[in-house]
Hints:
With 247 residues, the chain is mostly helical. It is 53% helix and 4% strand.
Amino acid sequence: MTIYINPFEDIEEVDIEKYSKENPLFYYELPRGIFKKEGNIIQNLLNFDMEHWENLLNNRLHSITNNFAYAMFYYEKGIPDKEWYISPGFKGQSVQFFPHFKEEHYSNQYNFSYFVDTFFLKSFTVFETIGHLLFKLFNIEVNKDDWKDQISFHNAVFKLKKINFKLHKDLLKIKKSSEFTKGIKMRNDIAHNHPPYRVSSGVTIGENTYTFGVGEYTTSEEIKKVMIGLLNSIKETFEILSTHFTK
């Protein structure tokens, strides 16, 4: 069977607002200027630098909002993968993958996966940008001789323990939440491991055992839930920062 994929099919029809109805960040107004401090000329220069990073943060938020909407457009066009395999197949195959797909569904799945990739990779640039802002705000030092001591959201939260314990504790709750951990696992699988939207080989190699099965696959509905959960984590992070910096 030859399957013809149509990349970005009908993308010009996407209404961003319509397909953002489940995005908790879509109507959320990003707090501006919360990383600035009053001070002298040098502080004003630092504030200018902060404003640059806040603009970068805002652009990255805009990007993930658009990518979520595009992904939902193709999701709602139809990806019937809730039952992603049957055994035996309709024609007697031992296993039949995506038994309810018609040709257009393969294009929907392909395009959905494309924007899922971009969404997860861009989402964590939001957290890393927050990390940069926290390093700058608290003048956190980096040991340039230690390759593990890098500017990142993770490192910022860790180092805040000795600088602002209450903020550290609140941000740590985000990092330990199921929504964040599921999001980071899916991002890592996309970037470093087997992508969740592709059926794995089914081969499992143990110390003294070798097995072969149907493989693993994450349905589009499950991926959507993780995406919304990660958006919630981003929103909650902004709410925590706003609470701490606007008192």
